[in-house]
Predict the 3D structure of the following.
Amino acid sequence: MKRCGWFDFEATKEKFPIRVDSYSGTFEIDLGENYDNKTFIGKDVEKLRGEAYAYLRDVTAGQWKPFIIVEHDSSGIQSKHKIYFEYRRLFRLEKDDGTFLWKKWNGPDDSHEGSPGGSSFGPDRDDQYRNTRCLPYSKETWNGLLEITKAIETVDKKIKEMVDSGDLEAKLKRIAAGTTHALDYSPIVSAKRSR
């Protein structure tokens, strides 16, 4: 397809290429990754401009709200000693038809402030083994997830130390006999919570 012009969206001062397939006479307006790669295709270029305009008007007028997607995957774990736990911050826009657009969290990792970035994908709800929750963003919820990460890192460090130690077999036998706790792990309680 060859570019044959531009579609200008004045509200955001953006330009999008209009392409034409000279063999079929089909036009295309691709809004790119910032708009979920939405593409309008057809033989009537003015109709396509109208559709692209309506779509951009609705998307840019809507309110992008921050969310956290939390996923735990138990997919076909052959043995019960694996963990898949992921979480990420995104911005979500609910369109008039009830569907959603997602944008990446644009901001420093260590900050609670962010803005909508490039296009992203939302929660994977098609995988039967993946447990997914989509939560409204709050500092407290995000900090709770960060605490879980710290706990996982602490357990991982203890497992590494145990495997690297010279008495791994003896430790495992004591754990099996119930004379010692697995990994000697107890969650870290912050000073604020212990008061």
The first strand starts at residue 2 and ends at 9. Residues 21 and 130 are 42 Å apart (CA to CA). Residues 150-195 form one domain.
